[in-house]
Amino acid sequence: MASSSNDKPELSRSACRAFDLELSAFLEGERRLEVERHAQDCEFCSVVLADLEAIREASGALPLEDPPARMWLNLRATLAAEGLVKEPVAWFERFPGFAWFEWAAPVGALALLAITAGLLVRTPGRLENLAPADTTVALLAPVEFDVSPELAKTVTGLEENYAAREAKLDPAIKATYRKSLDSLNDSIKECRATVEAKPSDTLAQEYLMAAYAEKAEVLQSALEDVR
Amino acid sequence: MSPPIDGAPKAASESQLIGQAQRGDEAAFAALFGAYKRRVYSLCLRMTGNTAEAEDLSQEAFLQLFRKIATFRGESAFSTWLHRLVVNVVLMHLRKKELPQVSLDEFDQGQEEPVKRDYGDDDRRLIGSVDRLSLLKAIGDLPPGYRAIFVLHDVEGYEHNEIAQIMNCSVGNSKSQLHKARMKLREGLRKGGKGIPTRTPRPAPDEDR
Q1: Quick one: DSSP state of residue B25?
Q2: CA-CA distance, B44 to B60, in Å (whole number)?
Q3: Fewer Cβ close by (within 10 Å): the C or N end of chain A?
């Protein structure tokens, strides 16, 4: 047990000074037997050593602090003002293999309309069997558009997977992903409503596809973070 | 080596995010900000000891990051690159504000005298686990030069050779400043009333003391 220097007259102030001189190196992990020995014999110096070790330990374990929420808004505004962020691009522009989609989508929509009209005209009895009022409804009925079943299925699968594992994420990261997903869900809802109200709106269709594709990317990224 | 950054995305997704951010993708900027904001803000806060300055400096650091991200080639880890950038932003600010444009070796000449121990005084032991808030306050109260080295070494985990390079001083100076900083911090914590007496006041030390 450590005793005070007063109890041990042979331990002089010079021994404490020598301890002080070597203490820094000892705390850096260098071998200093005299420091260990002196700390055992001198209560004052053992207290100093214990305190410094406690401070070092506590300092290395300080938790991270959250910045104010406004920081991103300020930063985003500056980035936009400096032209560092670009407008969101359509999902197919991110994948060179899908570049044809830009012109193919409207052409495809027109082709679909033509085929539907052709079938209605050429199928024997199809038009005749319809009452006049029904014919009007059939011709004016929206051409149903939706995202590809594969993409919808992928997003649903990722969403279920993420919902089951979301709790494992760091709360701050989880909140960031939740915010992104909420924003994308809002976009999907808005685009879907526009497409339903105006099925010929190819821009809305395009945005709907882009929102789904982006949601898939965000979910994929979130799942990678969970792992 | 600098410590890894908590909350950082996994390497694959991080490189994707960086690539997207280099193309100006706002979502990628937001994701990188979300992943690193706490680490960056905490470093700024500890090095300045002031929340308003920490907010401004964090924002400045992220702005510099996004302005320079196109030049990031992946030669070092992104977290290391960002960490160094943040430290430079803070040190630049401290030099403008409190330190003259000199190296730490020169700066050390003007620092306060090393903390001296009064051998045999009414020494008080700090509570075994140091109170976090008191510790943060005591770190904030350190003179800027001491605080920077203490935070970089004991909080952020930098090695002395890295600190010497960052702060333009010698390794020996970094070690010496760190020790003085720790002693000063201990003194601050004791004065702050966060110590507990280990014994009753002692009689005057013997004549050799």
Answers
A1: B
A2: 11
A3: N
In the block, residue with structure tokens 């207290």? A47
Tokens of A141: 């009925």
When pLDDT is cut at 50, 70 and 90, the band that residue A82 belongs to is: confident
DSSP character at residue A3: B
- Burial of B54: CB neighbours in 10 Å, binned 0-12, 13-18, 19+: buried
List all residues of chain B from 57 to 86 with a beta carbon under 8 Å from chain A.
Answer: 58-59, 62-63, 66-67
> Which sign, positive or negative, has the C-alpha torsion B47, B52, B55, B56?
negative
Same domain, B88 and B132: no
Phi, psi of A85 (to 5 degrees): -105, 145
Residue of A nearest to B153 (CA): A60
Shared domain for B135 and B190, answered yes or no, is yes
Domain containing residue A137:
100-141
Is B113 an 8 Å CB contact of chain A? no
> Does a structural domain hold residue B6?
no
Q: What is the pLDDT of residue A142?
A: 44
Cα A15–B199–B136 angle (5° rounding)? Answer: 85
Is A14 within a domain? yes
The stretch A157-165 carries a mean pLDDT of 86
Amino acid at A106: P
Structurally, chain B folds into a number of domains equal to: 2
CA B182 to chain CA mean position, Å: 13
Read off the pLDDT of each residue in A184-213 and give the average, rounded to a whole number. Answer: 79
Q: Which residue has tokens 């792992």?
A: A227
Question: How many structural domains does chain A have?
Answer: 2
**Token pair in block for residue A68:** 């104010």
Whether B61 and A84 have beta carbons less than 8 Å apart is answered as no
Query: CA separation (Å) from A221 to B17, B31, B70, B153?
Result: 9, 10, 22, 33
Across the range A153-174, mean pLDDT stands at: 83
Name residues 36-95 of chain A within 8 A of B (Cβ): 43-44, 47-48, 50-52, 54-60, 62-68, 71-72, 74-76, 78-79, 82, 84-86, 88
Q: What's the confidence (pLDDT) of residue A168?
A: 83
* Torsion, Cα of A18, A23, A28, A34 (10° steps): 60
